[in-house]
Amino acid sequence: MPDIRYLLPASEPKFKDSGITKAGELLKAWNGSPATGIGLIGAPLSKTSISHSGAAMAPEAIRKMLHSFTTYSVEKDKDLKSMAITDFGDITPHVTDLKETQNRFVKVIQEVLERNPDIIPVILGGDHSISASSIRAFKKVKGPVGIIQFDAHHDLRNLEDGGPSNGTPFRQLIEGNDIKGEHLIQIGIRDFSNGRMYTNYAKENGIKIYSMNDVNRLGARRILEESVRTLKSKVSSIYVSVDMDVLDQAFAPGCPAIGPGGMNSEDLIQGVQYLSTCPDVKGMDIVEVDPTLDFRDMTSRLAAYLILQFLLNRP
Amino acid sequence: MPDIRYLLPASEPKFKDSGITKAGELLKAWNGSPATGIGLIGAPLSKTSISHSGAAMAPEAIRKMLHSFTTYSVEKDKDLKSMAITDFGDITPHVTDLKETQNRFVKVIQEVLERNPDIIPVILGGDHSISASSIRAFKKVKGPVGIIQFDAHHDLRNLEDGGPSNGTPFRQLIEGNDIKGEHLIQIGIRDFSNGRMYTNYAKENGIKIYSMNDVNRLGARRILEESVRTLKSKVSSIYVSVDMDVLDQAFAPGCPAIGPGGMNSEDLIQGVQYLSTCPDVKGMDIVEVDPTLDFRDMTSRLAAYLILQFLLNRP
Amino acid sequence: MPDIRYLLPASEPKFKDSGITKAGELLKAWNGSPATGIGLIGAPLSKTSISHSGAAMAPEAIRKMLHSFTTYSVEKDKDLKSMAITDFGDITPHVTDLKETQNRFVKVIQEVLERNPDIIPVILGGDHSISASSIRAFKKVKGPVGIIQFDAHHDLRNLEDGGPSNGTPFRQLIEGNDIKGEHLIQIGIRDFSNGRMYTNYAKENGIKIYSMNDVNRLGARRILEESVRTLKSKVSSIYVSVDMDVLDQAFAPGCPAIGPGGMNSEDLIQGVQYLSTCPDVKGMDIVEVDPTLDFRDMTSRLAAYLILQFLLNRP
Amino acid sequence: MPDIRYLLPASEPKFKDSGITKAGELLKAWNGSPATGIGLIGAPLSKTSISHSGAAMAPEAIRKMLHSFTTYSVEKDKDLKSMAITDFGDITPHVTDLKETQNRFVKVIQEVLERNPDIIPVILGGDHSISASSIRAFKKVKGPVGIIQFDAHHDLRNLEDGGPSNGTPFRQLIEGNDIKGEHLIQIGIRDFSNGRMYTNYAKENGIKIYSMNDVNRLGARRILEESVRTLKSKVSSIYVSVDMDVLDQAFAPGCPAIGPGGMNSEDLIQGVQYLSTCPDVKGMDIVEVDPTLDFRDMTSRLAAYLILQFLLNRP
Amino acid sequence: MPDIRYLLPASEPKFKDSGITKAGELLKAWNGSPATGIGLIGAPLSKTSISHSGAAMAPEAIRKMLHSFTTYSVEKDKDLKSMAITDFGDITPHVTDLKETQNRFVKVIQEVLERNPDIIPVILGGDHSISASSIRAFKKVKGPVGIIQFDAHHDLRNLEDGGPSNGTPFRQLIEGNDIKGEHLIQIGIRDFSNGRMYTNYAKENGIKIYSMNDVNRLGARRILEESVRTLKSKVSSIYVSVDMDVLDQAFAPGCPAIGPGGMNSEDLIQGVQYLSTCPDVKGMDIVEVDPTLDFRDMTSRLAAYLILQFLLNRP
Amino acid sequence: MPDIRYLLPASEPKFKDSGITKAGELLKAWNGSPATGIGLIGAPLSKTSISHSGAAMAPEAIRKMLHSFTTYSVEKDKDLKSMAITDFGDITPHVTDLKETQNRFVKVIQEVLERNPDIIPVILGGDHSISASSIRAFKKVKGPVGIIQFDAHHDLRNLEDGGPSNGTPFRQLIEGNDIKGEHLIQIGIRDFSNGRMYTNYAKENGIKIYSMNDVNRLGARRILEESVRTLKSKVSSIYVSVDMDVLDQAFAPGCPAIGPGGMNSEDLIQGVQYLSTCPDVKGMDIVEVDPTLDFRDMTSRLAAYLILQFLLNRP
Ligand SMILES: [Ca+2]
Ligand SMILES: [Ca+2]
Ligand SMILES: [Ca+2]
Ligand SMILES: [Ca+2]
Ligand SMILES: [Ca+2]
Ligand SMILES: [Ca+2]
Ligand SMILES: [Ca+2]
Ligand SMILES: [Ca+2]
Ligand SMILES: [Ca+2]
Ligand SMILES: [Ca+2]
Ligand SMILES: [Ca+2]
Ligand SMILES: [Ca+2]
């Protein structure tokens, strides 16, 4: 841009405070050489959802919300501004061929991971179906992987009734031998949000379930310590899948499947803070945020905040 | 419907998962023979409200929200799908004669209870005025009844100023000798939401008041244990009246009289779970949900969830 | 339902005026024997849309809006209440396989038409992709068909870039030899809403285009008279495809692709009134209504009103 | 208020331009002595509506919208700022006894008219039921009255099914001998918005009906000239009842019963301009504006604008 | 961006049709060498508004809406895709010093015009106050300028009461000798939207006023022909200032000062089409669009469409 | 108002219960003689905000919300109805000169305090910039003052980049020697909401910071006890500045800068209850409530509730 004072490209912020760096500025488009640290990949797909969902708009909304935060943690007295979040951009979905889209997700994420072996990927859904693609790619590159899933739902539905949807990712992964049931830990499973057949499937496959009663009784922190301890003895890396509907509807009003009786946001924040200190945690996704249903981007804001907390405490 | 594959009546869900039963499917229209278990009766009246209210739309909204839950409780490992909720439908209000509507409510509920002596009625308001009709009918059929009322407000206003409104149901019941003051327990009464004259009326009539400070100090569970113990020694059955505005505005954004300083939803859920285990609890109503003011049906969702928890734990 | 006075099934209207019949009551579920008159078929698919769309919810919304109209036309002094609209219900889409859904649409509509040779089908989208399926089925059963398409857009996009979407239905039909270009008439094509490549495609294929300037200059009525005259000499039946985005955004705020410079609703109403008097018009669809974006269901209301006007004037 | 510069009562506007007078400032509370010119009376009742309605909030909203206009007509080069609109305030409704409310309306309006014989009352509903009370009072004080009713609906429903509601005012007036059928002219009656029984009732009672086709064909102005000519030969004064739902939904999005196929706002404005020049027009009401459903108070704004146009052109 | 197939920068569109160019792609950031054709400059200021306004967000919203249109005009069979709209970006406002912001606007626009003598600037407000800055700069560079102002309001308020606000731009220009009153033509001035003092000021200063009655009687086209003819004999260039509130509220729901009785959008579109054919028209601004109040960006969409029509017909 | 029964001024409530006094009725316009107790002063300025803000509308919204509460505290069994809240009205802002507005705030508040030496002022913002004016006036009249600031943000930004905005009030006060850094206590400072430069500035200036971790660990009550103890030894009076964005977004959805990880409303309520018992607390402001962004006035409701709790417990 040629320099006329006070004339700035339309995309630039209208006000710049010399003492503040916006977290959105941490985003640096990937330049093709192997990156380190956290890397964002958008997986904008929600046509795979059982109910109407605009979760495909979440990567855009969450990135935008990163601009509403600064880079400085007063709690840790740590400024992230010298760090970068590598932004790999979004994987383009096919308009009408959803399986093709899912295949693209696997291939692209695999290639990103191969070319950036030290990156900690944070995949932004999209609905929860994208975790099947993402974890498949993750496992191909990284080997056996343990999963910590925050969710009100098992997502272990049968594949016959509707194909690979946002209700089936972990079923797909188990049946595809991408993960073992015993390497999957589900936290926040809720009453009247699942079918017994699928809870039984979980049990039969050795999946560890922490229900909301467990969360309320033990606290997310203790559950996560236990979970990480268990998984790290079995697998070489841990992948955290955060379905935002694990939260109570008061704290995540923008999820497609909101409901009462869920976690509060403080618990989830502290959970992510703990996980970010664990060297074995090597990847994360955040799914099921629908910006078209949200109130003032609250749910996207929280997602962006989780990314920053995840970045802040990494060893 | 004649069978053309994939062609279904418009009212049917567009997707059916063979491993999931929706709680809405538990609703079975009453067939005229004596029913058992829980029975829903809609009392769609809110023209009786002091302020503008669309609570008359709540029965429709709450029934619809039952379809957003499944029948399975992971906490209890219990599937309700073999149970039924008898749906008695809605009592039709008169367009302009509100007392006539209230009389219809008394008569219809009375007849439903007489013809279904074993039913546990769950009356869906409407505004809180419907409790006067409902409890009057309840008492006619069941005899002396104790009331546990969750509410930010006493609802003991004088009848001279505005007639039998949503501010007066418990005054009407006491003055009509339908209940005794000492058989009424009010939980969640809140600062700056009542008039001293009515708190005094409550005290003079022996009504037991647990304010929000009491709830915060003792917990809903302990208060309810105490309440049930007290009431069961005095009356033969207990009726629970849940005014959703007992909740803080963050958890029940769709009540006409929202405000800060109220209960959180987890407490109320656990309260209803406890009450559902008490054999003396023989009826319930849920009132003051206005779907036209709600955000994403959160308040109706919570109401539906309370019905399921009430059903789940019944002895 | 057993008779307790004033107790009605939840789905019944709460007030019934003895002098009014709601148009929604005209809907009669198909009983399997050959029906006559107008028949509604819901095609709830919008995952095929290029942009995020909730048009799949339109069949439900439009049917509901039929309940906000009565059966009586004061202009014609004609009461439709002795007529019926056969409701064939909705065709169930597959959750993740969109081509499978489109195949189901073809097969089901074909079977409906075969078993109901005298029905005038009104297909409720869904996005405009459903017209490809619907017209394909129509042509299979009825033979060569001429199309009058109200639309701001050609919908002649190439199939390579995104597959069979809501941008491609008429391209699909021409390339699949389901219709001839010269049998397609497009009304309401608008500036800055199309690509030249596709206007050229239209011209090369003999498609007749009436742009918005033409509509403003000639009036919809005169264009339609001309169009029907032209088509009836060439084909045995005419199918009308109404993409509601042909209207200006002020009159159809609930279409996914709203914009200025379109038709006003009165013109479209009069157009449909004229078409309904033409015996050669044998089918219609109404597409691109997204109830999740609408204001007070205005666009669904208008769609329902068009159905009634289409029914009213049929010879 | 004591004078501290720049400190103003909370209710005062925050900015005052010395060259602008807001139309809201024309409102002067009635001081008890006989007033002349236009007098506003609020009739905040909509519990009488067949469907859920917040029209009771319209008097407040319309008064507020008067503050968004100035007092100056550039078309007539006339400034109303030396005139006053006498504000009689609102008639308080009973909370639960709707007939009592209607009786209060009759008595209060009657007394206002008796004590202010030269006032031109403008009654602000509320729903259309208030016209029955208002016209009854009007006739008691002024003698035989002719009515020009703008409405999509006859409002001639039977009184048995729901009592005196917003569907019945003109039936009540005819059956109560308050007006004769031949003195009632209905403009804007619309397809699929009425029952044949009531159109027949209108015809049998000599009510003159101008349907929307008539309005589109003849124009509101010519219809009104004809109507005033007819009525002035038969009655001593004319009362205009404006149900805002006579307008198309695009122009009056805040009416409870919106729909397509109605008048545009320019026609209604010109109609009111004409009526305001007729000395025989002695009263008006504006009804069926529901501010809780409106978009940016558009419908209340238009109502306020009609009041000003009605005031502007009075002889 | 390194090439991984299907991985695209987050800012890129998720779907690209090879036959469609989006109008937003015409925007090319200025590279510093003299540009020709149309040049966009954002003037994001609305703190100067008398009422609360978010018009400062309009440049972003209008640019975004350019992406919802294509480059092809079917009416003219002309594709703009080989043309460019030079995007000069936005002028950064000061957070708290509004006069400083206005000075920046003058200086930057002046410099842009000096360095790009052949550009046709299109300034995107912001509120109408920005026209004072813009026209001042325009006149400094281009010499005497005639103004065609579309507006419901004169914007000739006194400067004493509130300083240079959105109510004063043309007063400022006249009093600052930037323009002569006789070189200002105001189109669409509306009843009850102005003060007589300011209409008198207009008349005394030789400003030509076309009220809404004039617009309805003569048509925008004829008024504009007359206006251009008049102005071109007096000044060397014409600047068009489009306050979107000249439109009726049904067509521009997102203006801060909406109201009934205004122009419809088709008239304004045709007016801009005509103006774009006049070689003397050398600049334009579009102001008073508040995206925070709009419905589905309708008003920004229309603003973007006007820009394209302005570009399309340029000689 | 002359007495016609049931006819009331438009501004009066439509229903009056003889046993209820609304808290809004406590507001008494200042009569010029020295007042005691709490005094409200509106400071409607938010053009000074860094981001778009409608906080200038908060004084009106909060006053209105006082009408949704009663005067009676059931917890304290204390009725405020014999008390008064002196309403000093609002200070009128200049339309375009924001510094002039800030100067008016200082002068008016100073004069109010001088003429009402015993008043406890509660200033209603506006954005947080108003605290600089308010505290400056406070200090001029009352001498050295200690500040307890609830806020997610330091508000210690530099003044060069944007002038005296809502990001700078406490920087202004320190640099202007209105307060000392060691007399400022900030509670609720949050991660990713501040710049390190400003946290360092706070530390260097002796400002005491309690971050959200501190609040979660110690509780608001204990922090406040400590804070009051510290301050009262150093200054003669304490001023409490409540930026509502100290709350989590779930509890204060109407603040411009919402986010996760904040306080819950119960903690803040209890904090204010405690502060109201401290005789040294001599003034308060409530800022950063934007009614245009809120949901059902939740944030204004909470602000009104805090005022009542602050009034309730005063010694
Ligand atoms: Ca999930
Ligand atoms: Ca989930
Ligand atoms: Ca209650
Ligand atoms: Ca209550
Ligand atoms: Ca189309
Ligand atoms: Ca289209
Ligand atoms: Ca009517
Ligand atoms: Ca009507
Ligand atoms: Ca203007
Ligand atoms: Ca204007
Ligand atoms: Ca602050
Ligand atoms: Ca803050």
Describe the fold and architecture.
Chains A, B, C, D, E, F: GO terms for molecular function: agmatinase activity; formimidoylglutamase activity; metal ion binding. Chains A, B, C, D, E, F: It holds the Pfam family Arginase. Chains A, B, C, D, E, F: Mn(2+) binds at residues 128, 151, 153, 155, 243, 245. The structure is a homohexamer of 315-residue chains. With 315 residues, chain A is an alpha/beta fold. Chain A has a single domain (23-160, 167-312), classed as Ureohydrolase domain (Arginase, Chain A, 3-Layer(aba) Sandwich). Helices cover 33% and strands 19% of the residues of chain A. Chain A contains 9 helices and 12 strands. Chain A has helices spanning 58-66, 98-115, 129-142, 169-175, 196-204, 212-218, 220-232, 265-276, 298-312; strands at 7-8, 27-29, 37-43, 72-73, 78-79, 85-91, 119-125, 145-150, 184-189, 208-211, 237-243, 281-287. In chain A, the strands form 2 sheets. In chain A, strands 2-6-3-7-12-11-8-9-10 form a 9-stranded parallel sheet, with helices on both faces. Chain A has a two-stranded antiparallel ribbon with strand order 4-5. In chain A, strand 8, helix 4 and strand 9 form a beta-alpha-beta unit. In chain A, helix 6 packs across helix 7 (220-232), helix 7 (220-232) runs parallel beside helix 8 (265-276) and helix 8 runs parallel beside helix 9. The longest helix of chain A has 18 residues, at 98-115. Chain A is globular, with a radius of gyration of 19 Å. The mean pLDDT of chain A is 97. The interface between B and F is medium-sized, with 34 and 33 residues. The site of one calcium ion has 6 residues of chain D, from loops.
